[in-house]
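Predict the 3D structure for this chain.
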Amino acid sequence: MKVVCYLIIFLLSVSIIKAQVIRGKVLSKTSLTPLPGANVYWKNENKGTSTNANGQFELEAIKLPAQLIASFVGFRNDTLRIDDDQIKDIIFYLEESILLKEVEVSAEQSSTFMSMRPAIPIEHITSKELKKAACCNLSESFETNASVDVAVTDAVSGGKKIQMLGLDGVYTQILFENMPFLRGLSSSYGLNFVPGTWVESMQITKGSGSVVNGYESMAGQINIEFLKPEEHEKIFVNLYANHQSRYEANVHLAQKISKKISNLLFLHANTVQSKTDMNQDGFYDMPFSNQINVFNRWNINTEKWESKSGIKVMWDDRISGQTHFNKNVEQKYQKAYGIGVNNQLAEAFTKNGFLFPNKPNKSIGTIVNGKIHRQEMFFGNRKYSGTEQNVNANIIHQSMLGNTFHTLKLGGSFVFDEYNENYNDSLFNRTEIVPGTFAEYTYNDELKFSVVAGIRADWHNLFGFRFTPRLHLKYNILQETVLRVSIGRGFRVANLFIENSSVFASARNVIIKTPIMPEDAINTGGSLLHKFTFLGREASFVADYFYTTFLNQVVVDLDYHPQQVWFYNLNGASYSHSTQTEVNFFAFEKFEIKMAYKFYDVQSTYNGILQAKPLVPKHRILLGFSYTTFNEKWKFDASANYFGKSRLPNTSTNPDVYKRNHYSIPYTLAHLQITKIFKHIETYLGGENLLNFIQPNAIIAPNDPFGNYFDASMMWAPVNGRMVYGGIRFKIK
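Done. Predicted structure below.
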């Protein structure tokens, strides 16, 4: 009987203990606002919960007294002692962590920065940084950035491409608000299709990036954020002109239709009517061009649903060639060498997020975007036409596992690409269908250690299953010092002609040696970020190293024969070593200095011989200076880029007059801009390539463009000399 009584007493006591529930809320100490999704857990126990949308929590009690901890992203942890008589109305007041704050844009803070928070290293480029240059289009938005290089594709068409980690831009995934963007037919001239005034900010990630955004990232990811309707002025106008007869106009019209619906219309037009031939080789330095670009986007925000959608149409036409080329004469009757490039593009997207107010750590997102792109080109007697139809779809489910330290993303994707290409009357058509699924786990203890581990499984209708694992780790060595390491894999299918359109600007015969297989690469690397104060002001130091090795690569061999270009699958080694260091600091109030050095060792196997990739300089140095007057009415921005020598393709079998050296020569580009700020108006005046450096003998055999030795594709420096520009920005809030 006593045993039964003791058992009843024990069970009652247990039930009483189980019935004890700790209740309270977590607030911001500064604003006294609730912090939804904050972690609340017992010290040294595997028991915890998270706050609801009102910052409130309920948690089963353990043996008291005990220590209860509250944590939230960007705030310092707080610990309270909980006694038997204190189980209700507990309030945590969390203080924002200065060390973890994102850098806000102000006169005394850098216009580019790296956050100490995520496991994946992300460099943020703000609108303040983008305004340091005219930034007429995306290709001109990286002049003050050390991570991304921009190279001219050839001496006649005006095409540009980016490089990252010493690798061609096709190995960098370019996204528009986390949607696939400049790929396919857009990879050759697409940088010119994005007006600079449309861009709000950019995020640059080196390495393989997140599996959520797809499988094509090998060298890095660049995410472009456009201006948002709900945050934009009612009217914005930007007018630009330079002394080489380039004129641009941008008009933005924002409208807040209701509390939940807003709209933003972008209008852009530009024209280039220059007839310059500064190097006197008989070819225009820049093409005559005209572009019309319209983009309309809508945002809808409700308590349980967010939607962003838009449609964009663009028409771009450019004509270039010899100075006596007559565009009004049919090509078959032409005696002069001419170039024509026409692009017609229509794009649409919709992004939808479904929210759960009672479960703030759960969300479902869907993304669908598509485009139709038509491109027609002629380079002398060579003709190309291509049509691309593309659809991308993504669904993402995000949820918390236990507490906000653990997050899981699950989802599926679908990619449809149809290419119809015609090169010199030979057809190259293909259809790619790639359904896939992915999972990404994140453990995020911002003050100590973070992990992002993901894997993708994609089935390609032409090449079968492909698995893409990626891992990112972050460790806080000190409160101001963060170490990150990563490893990941990526694959892509090359578009031979459009990604190498520069060879059209030559007499080289195109030879596809073997059936082309998908490119496959593994990227490993790491970075060290240290934030400190210099002369009492914010400063930062970043050093990174990345190694990319190709399991397969489409080799573009310009060395086998000067009159041929060979395409074949890699048979040997191909890799890239990239090292970069960068320091940002304020020498004195409102005067910022940026210094960066970058070293590349990029090699590939060409016809059985491992040698340096041509047209990639091993050394690059960037210096940037920015000063704003104390009344913030004047801004002065200057930059200088030093480019070391690079290997040039082999021309040893050419006649002596058409031979080129084995290496280019080093050179420096300098830019300057002065901005005057009024209440509603900004005016700016600037100059590019102030040292007036022009690549000597940029075109081989310019006097015989229809001959066997003509080549305008060996570009390692600009063909445009010093350029002066000016403009005005006007806005009404």
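The longest strand covers residues 403-423.
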